[in-house]
Amino acid sequence: MKNILEEIPLFDGVKQSVLDTISNDFNIKKYKRNRPILVEGGRNDHFYIVKKGEVRVYRTDKNGEKVIFAILGEGEFFGEMSILDDCPVSANVVTSQPSEIICISRRRFKSMLKNIPKFSSRLFAHMSLRIRHCDESIENLNKPNTYERVGTVLLNLAEKSGYRKKTSVIIDKLPFQHNIASLAGTSRETVSRTFSQLEERKYITKTGRYLVINDYPRFYKEFSK
């Protein structure tokens, strides 16, 4: 487990001796696709980190539609808010694909926050960044143009999980189109149509879930407005 923790950004800078001490406090749970981990309104007693796979965070609106807030991949975490404020879980968390999730109990998590300054500072920095992304997503949903909304979602995904190759950015595990549609507040058909438009304009090259933003500076200039 120590070797696994060393690869997770939250533990960057934490001493080896500390990792040795806390590694036995963590467990790994395996989930099949579409399995709930947290349920809105329920109680949560664990802090979770995605080791492998992907989860989606969503709530259900008054019309019964799922509104996705985030899609979390390897190294990302969830469950901290309901522990910190001791309130019911505010959103559902469900696996998007078969996943391995690292978890630690509420009591051990609070002990880590208190006794490992490097961990707590990294955690709160990531939480702050997440709030910024959430604010940007809300602002994006207010844009009337669906083409711009989908482009901005791709831009956010590129900033979050893409990697550079010269002037291009590659996203090698693009979320499924229905998830992108929810993030952009539109339909799956509109996302598909927008992808076709972006390909026609040479903004992107897409094969399955592998997507390349061909000229990232140009793409950024277009959709970061």
What does this structure look like?
- With 225 residues, this protein is an alpha+beta fold.
- The protein has two domains: 2-139, Jelly Rolls (Sandwich), CATH 2.60.120.10; 145-223, Orthogonal Bundle (Arc Repressor Mutant, subunit A), CATH 1.10.10.10.
- The protein contains nine helices and twelve strands.
- The protein has helices spanning 2-6, 16-22, 80-84, 106-115, 117-141, 146-161, 177-184, 188-200, 216-223; strands at residues 27-31, 36-38, 46-52, 55-60, 66-72, 77-78, 92-95, 99-105, 163-165, 168-171, 204-207, 210-213.
- The strands form three sheets. The protein has a four-stranded antiparallel beta sheet with strand order 1-8-3-6. The protein has a four-stranded antiparallel beta sheet with strand order 2-7-4-5.
- A hairpin with a 5-residue loop joins strand 4 (55-60) and strand 5.
- Helix 5 packs antiparallel against helix 6 (146-161), helix 6 (146-161) packs across helix 7 and helix 7 (177-184) packs across helix 8.
- The protein is globular, with a radius of gyration of 18 Å.
- It starts with a helix and ends with a helix.
β-strand amount: 15-25%
Q: Largest beta sheet: what is the strand line-up?
A: 1-8-3-6
Major sheet characteristics = 4 strands, antiparallel
Share of helical residues:
40-55%
Quickly count the helices.
Answer: 9
- Overall pLDDT confidence: 91
Keywords:
Arc Repressor Mutant, subunit A; 2 domains; Jelly Rolls; four-stranded antiparallel β-sheet; alpha+beta
Give the topology, please.
Blueprint: H1 2-6, H2 16-22, E1 27-31, E2 36-38, E3 46-52, E4 55-60, E5 66-72, E6 77-78, H3 80-84, E7 92-95, E8 99-105, H4 106-115, H5 117-141, H6 146-161, E9 163-165, E10 168-171, H7 177-184, H8 188-200, E11 204-207, E12 210-213, H9 216-223
Antiparallel strand pairs: 1-8, 2-7, 3-6, 3-8, 4-5, 4-7, 9-10, 10-12, 11-12
Helix pairs in contact: 5-6, 6-7, 6-8, 7-8
